[in-house]
Protein 1
Amino acid sequence: MSMKCIFLYNPNSGKGKIAKKLSYIKKRLCTKYDEVTVYAASGARDLEEKVRESADAGYDAVIFAGGDGTFNNILHGAGERNVQFGYIPAGTVNDVARSLKIPRSVRGALNVILKGHSETLDCMRVNGGNYAMYVAAAGAFTSATYKTPQWSKRALGALAYAFEAVKSNMKLDVFPVSAECGEKRVETHAVLILVLNGKSVASFPINKDGSMKDGKIEAVIIKQVQKPGFFRRIGAYFSVASLFVFGCKVKKKDIVYLSGESISIQTDESVVWDFDGEEGIRGNVTVEVCPRSIRLFAPKNKKL
């Protein structure tokens, strides 16, 4: 029986390495698929529309390359359609790939796809219509992921995010938070919220015990007083550093950890959410698990 796939890629992800390896990628995919269609997306909207179209076109697999933002575009394009995906990480940080233990080399990722082992994974649905694969975040340093210029990422790689974070986010703005997760409720002010489905954020394994197939999400809130003085602000920097170095279960009185099937967060309309490194909506969110809704080629015998 004839098999066909489509290969979608974002020419701007990472340092443009995928465009240089198109012939190799197509040659490798042709060892598994009788027909391989290649499509270079002109932008996020184009990619989402092409995924939607491909999902209904009878392809045996939709293979795509790009970074975490590209993965988010794929989610929004596919929704919860039944599609077999394959992923070649080609971004600057590639947190989804780190969480799933997908090799970050083109050759290694293709090996995973060609071996054909598929996993059904959770993703997150936000306010009923937005999606995130590994993180929904608000507050300290999160805007760096979508404000960093593409030229800077190409030149500096992950360091570009660090420079943007220092330039734009050193103040650590404080915002009100009312969070509800299961029977637990938190009323506070905060400088950072992470709602997590993956293990890795900004290349740090801060949720190393998390899973993309357990039907749960984790959330971590770094608390702050409404009008912090100098020492309170310094304390918040140490808490952010502790979170990334020691993980989200670190024992600190100003770090709150939650876990469940969904979490509702009430906050100011000025608070901007980041979904997988892409600028998202503002204000209140309800994040819920979509259990086992994504079919993706992944390494076998790995704890995902």
Protein 2
Amino acid sequence: MEKGNKKTIFAIAAVIIAAILMFILYQTFMPKGSKGDKTITVTVVHGDGSQKEFTCKTQEAYLDKVLVAEAIVEDNPSDYGLYILVADGEEADEGSQEWWCITKGGESVNTGASDTPIEDGDCFELTLTTGY
């Protein structure tokens, strides 16, 4: 085998090993929800600025299950979890680059609804946002 081929094979193997290690680390340290009685608040901020607050009592561990069970959003599963297209009856216009932004206590969350763990007393916001 030529020296260049060995380097290429080694580089590909190193990338695959790094990807596997990153996946294992993510699975180990990703935020995990806990089951049990909890009450959370979800505020939907519509495109016109109006707001509607929902108080939800649940035993679920993740936000998506609560949003669907309480009919705050329409159940719209995707390959990556719940895709929020409609919240409190208002549909995001994807052609105008509208989307529902999830925040917790006014701070962005770095996960989708299906991967966002909930704890008792949490306050989430779904805000209709324009622009990607």
Protein 3
Amino acid sequence: MKKTIIATLLSAAVLAPAGAQNYKDSRYYDRQTGRLEYGKQNGRSTSSYRYARTADDSKSPYIGFRIGPSFTTVSSDDPYLDGGSMKTGLNVGIAVAAPVSYSAPLYLESGLYYTEKGGKGKNTDNRKFTYNLNYLEIPLVFKYRHAFDEHFKIEPYFGGYFAVGVGGKIKDFANREAHSSFSDDADGSFRRCDGGLRFGVGASYDMFYMELGYDLGLANICHDTFDTSRNGALLLNFGVNL
């Protein structure tokens, strides 16, 4: 299942630049604005509509493709589950957004991501362990797209996310043992559902996009009633907006 999810999302991310090239080869593509400009609007020529649209860009929805590394930890009261040392994984997905205001460039953005989280550390016997927590994640954030000119935007955002675990392994290197990271029983594994806050800032130049964000887990993902375990993830994404 993991390979299928990654292959599907990576295919979309890889094909996006090819679509972007066709988009730039279109006879409707305007190199000054980095956009497709079609015919006339309300009796105005393409040229005059181009600048009206640039000035009021907050009315345009978009779809985006994202891929990049995730740098993750899990903080836990349980020494066996406390993965305080940073672990690197993959983050890949599709973003969709629509304007929520006609007077300001404020967007509501969501999407679907495959995100590899987890941590590594040493237990009470000083034995090394690592675990992977692989999630399908749905963010929901408000994003403000501040345009400096026709091409460049800064895009801070704030909101939350909900995630469901789809795979992963806990590995005990000392005993050469491994078992699933997610289980419905309190057997040293994690709950599947996670959620928390997401915030960060993005930057776009025409259709090209990058962002630095953070997932702050608020849900207790361990089974113990008295201990808590929470995810934390620094995300660096690259992609395109269409």
